[in-house]
Each structure stands twice: as C-alpha cells, then as structure tokens.
Amino acid sequence: MAQRPRELTPFVSARHLFGAELRRHREQAGLSLERLAAIVKYSRSHLSRIEIAEVMPPPDLAELLDAAFGTDGIFGKVYELAKREVHPDQYRRLMELEARAREIEEYGGQLVPGLVQTEDYARALFRVSNPAASPEAIEEKVAARMSRQALLRAEPPPHLSVILDEAAVRRPVGGPQVMRTQLAALIEIVDTPTSVVQVLPFDHGEHALAGGSLKLVTLEDRTAVAYEESIGTGTLIEDSDTVSAHRRVYDLLRAYALSPSRTATFIGSVMEALPS
Where does the HTH cro/C1-type domain start and stop, copy by copy (predicted)? Predict the structure, then answer.
C-alpha cells in the first residue's frame, strides 16, 4: 500500500508555501518526484524534503522550477520571501535539526554554549535571567537543557566544534565552584575523536562575531543552517549563501583561536586562579 503524502500547510510560512506550490505544480504536470528530480538535477529525497518544508530550497532551484513549469518567476518571488522571513517555529526547528546533525560548530562570546553546560552552570543562568521563576520552573528548564545534550551521546555522535571567547572562560557564572566544575567539563572534551574546544584570546582583538553567538548545524546530506542568538532572541538562517558567509567567519575565528592543547592549558590556568 502506497504511503499517503504528508498534508502540506502553505499558510504557515513562505517556505511552506514554496513546498506546497512545488507539489501542486508537479502533480498538475503529472510528474513524479523521480521524474522532476531528473529534470532539475536535484535528488528525489531533497525535493521531497523541500515539498514538506523540512529544508529551505537552494538558491538556484526556484529558477529551475519556473523553467520546468513555465511559471514566469513565481517560484523565484516566493523564494525571495522565504529566505528573508523569520520563522515562528525557528527554535523548535533548530532543535529538530540538531538532533539529526552530523556536525555542530558553535561560537560562545560571553557564555559557555548550552550543549556543553553543566547543570549548575545552566541553573545559575536560568535563575539570574528570571528571578521571579519558581524553583520548579527553573528545574524544568535545566532538565530540558540537559536532555538536549543527549544528542552528543548518540551513536554515532555529531562532530562538535566549540570556540569560546576568553570572556566565556573567565566569567565565573554561579561562583567559583560552579565555574571550576564547568571548566573541568570543558577540558574533558577539548580534544576527543568527536569534539574540539578552542579559546579565542582577548589579545586577538576585534572580530566579526564580537558581542554575539553563532551556531552552524550540518546534516548528513551537507545541508547547513546557521543560528544567531542575542539576549532573548534568535534567528535561524537557512539561505545557503548567508550560511556560507557565516561559515567563513567561523573558520576565520578557528584559525585565530588557540590549539586544543593550548586551550586545555589555558582553561587549567583559569581554574587554578579561581578562589577556593
């Protein structure tokens, strides 16, 4: 029995509208996904994921679809909207993508990123960001953050790269003991078969990500997204050209950062300087 096609929701976002129009025109033309894949030179699985709005269309696909269906630039116009919109479900979508990631690369400017935080470090941050929250609400947030870290223990786990600004290493979140435990946890993953941690020292000076944070998530098929975050807000970026630009910035920071072995030594010296 053939699997029933997933119901589409073109009203959710421009990305969903692009996928719904792709399916509608494909079916009107009497084309299977396999046949359309042969015409536009994209894989069947990739087109299927675009139809259900699981991934952003690549930049050149809109023009190829307009040519294939004779739609006079409609797909190009919808793509221009899709690549600029802010998705209302972006954080949930980020977590879904993280769970399927083969590579996660993250820069932390002021704080240790959530994927490698200890419980007490995360708890201190949640408390200070919402002092009126009940202890139960805080613990629920801590548990949710710790549950996300399970993806690092998957088989196989994603390859993890973390660049920490020196400020993130020196800021004693939660007090000396909490920070000492957090720094020790970072040393454990500083250089393993699936993880690398590097510190970008103050003496490097200014750089393109100063004052912000960045996460790059790459899937098995090399589809990549970027996620920028500031206080209380975040932006999921799926446009491939913009993601590539962010990757170049990240790669440049990695070149300027300390090596993993020097990072371990540096973090160890910060631990020793913490008051007992």
Answer: 22-74
